[in-house]
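Annex B. Sample input.
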Amino acid sequence: MLQLWQQYLPDFFAGVVVSLEVTGAALVLALALGALLVTARTGRVRVLRSLAVGYIEIFRAIPVLVLVFMAYYSLGQVGIRLPGFWAGVVALGAFYAALYSEDMRSGLQSVDRGQREAAQALGMTNGAMMRRVILPQALLAFLPPGTNELSNLIKDTSLVFTIGVADLMFQANQASAATFQPMDMFVLAGLFYFAFYILISRILARWELNVQRRRS
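Annex B, continued. Sample output.
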């Protein structure tokens, strides 16, 4: 087992880089789109609220793998052809945008109404109130579920191997087919994902603690 692992480690590390690239790009898209969704959902325009609610409900109900196939295969039928990497990013970003928007909305709703009234009594503009009072407190409530979603996003990147993206899971599948040792190769892939999870969890937990200390 160890000899096989040593032989395929370079390929696995190359897959790790691709997995991290997919994760980073999908996270940026999810946060940006999630911010737009929560803005529309909490705004005063009824049509935008309805569209945001509809988007969130639909995308939360569809399995991520189905979205990956839709982004790669279905969009091509209407003239939008995305490489496998970007199809995976779009699918994961679109799905997690729905989840992040709900986490953001919960964070905003967690801020006591008295905080808003106090800021208005001090003569703050809406922009200043959001920057100095609302958003810093909402961030503290957003961090725990937000970091949990990131951990799930890292694991869900394994689905992009189904459309030919050379991520970690793709490399494990290729090595398994070449060596006829699926147990060894997939155990190694599992160890890599476990290491990701532990590393990201520790980093985000430390960051969350630092933010809480600065706010207190």
